Amino acid sequence: MQGFWSRHPAMLSVFMLGAAVFLTMSVQGENSAVARWEEEASSLSSASSVSSEAQPIQQQEEILSVENPDEVRAVWVPYMSLDMRGGDGSAKTFEEKFDEIVSTSKKRGMNVLIVQVRPFGDALYESKYFPWSHLLTGRQGINPGYDPLAYMVQAAHKEGMEIHAWINPLRIQTESSPPELAQSNPYQQWRRDPEKAGWTASAGSGKYYNPAYPEVRTLIADGAREIVENYDVDGIHFDDYFYPTEDPSFDEVAYSAYKEEQGENALSLEQWRQENINLLIQEVYTAVKEADPDVVFGVSPQANLENDRAMGVDVETWCSQTGYIDYICPQIYVNSEHPTLPFETAAEQWLSISRLENIKLYFGLALYKANSDADAGTWKNAQDILARQILSGREKGVDGFFFYSWEYLDSDQTAEEVENVMTIFQAGSGT
């Protein structure tokens, strides 16, 4: 809570009006939040049987109105939503598809689109480093005759929304996607050169860039720089895919060479992999800021910190030192009934990480799980789970929320949950 008040001192006076409530929260901490959730759950439950125009949590108006005026409400737009295969492949069809994404997202209260533009070492934009994505024409490397990212930036900004270019930094190919790699793909070029063969690696049926090599890290950073230089994006975004496996064989040659060079000073495999990713994140951050200091760079790792470390993700360093990221958005895709990592526990773990004041903390929320059978069906037990998570995040002073994913903003499955989320957004903005 102290982090929140230090960033929003003007709001202290608002809470002075409810001093008794505040003092109780200060003493009881998490228990107070849970009690509030239970009260709101009862209100929302009773409202679920009436018109969607009802305001199920208006009793909590004071809490709802205590909102960061710059609160980020972002939605991920995954590559599947931009797949043009099976249609006529025209610019007009793509524009209509994306216009619907923008319209629906704005109507549902979003103000930022996180659009996946490089999902498989290929590009939904014109690139000098990566081939055109197979999603546009059915075959990687084929120019679709238009520039999707140019239109997406234009369409988002026209509606007053930010757009962040979402990049999967290491993935090149899974078992069936893309079906084949273009000859211009760096993977194809490097595999023909014995000195560069180790710059990519395999895990299971997938192919990946190997971040152990400086040349690989530079390629990824140059690709981010290229986007910022050529398109008026507001951010560059990495997801949670880093090292795809803990198997030592993935990068055995590179690690063996490192150990031989360092001797007794060599890091463990996990530490070495984390250092490789740290170097990558630093280089991407520098490239982005050199291209445009106003463009932000952020990462969305898994909620489970133990899993993150095993994948090479050193969140503690990124958050506590300059030159790595502008924001961090853990994917807290769990509810309060999750048996191993309930929402409250995950949230507190991330809030406890030392973080520079200028680094924003967002919570990634599992819209796709709402009213589903996920996690032993516990997401069917209430239709206000995300609403309560937003309230909890606001109480704790987080800077906004990301929702996965766009398709579920307008879905029968999630309709009631989305309505409750929008109630909070509308109440918080005074509309």
Low-confidence stretches: 1-66
Number of strands: 11
Q: Percent of residues in beta strands?
A: 5-15%
Q: Tell me the span between the first and last alpha carbons.
A: 27 Å
Multimeric state: single chain
Side-by-side strand order of the widest sheet? 1-2-3-7-8-9-10-11
**Biggest sheet record:** 8 strands, parallel, barrel
CATH architecture of the domain at 69-328: Alpha-Beta Barrel
The general outline is globular
| Radius of gyration, CA atoms, in whole angstroms | 22 Å
The CATH class label of the domain at 69-328 is: Alpha Beta
Structural class from helices and strands? alpha/beta
* Separate helix tally: 17
* CATH fourth-tier homologous superfamily of the domain at 69-328: Glycosidases
CATH topology of the domain at 69-328, which one?
TIM Barrel
Helix content: 40-55%
Order of helices and strands: HHHHHEHEHHEEHEEHEHHEHHEHEHEH
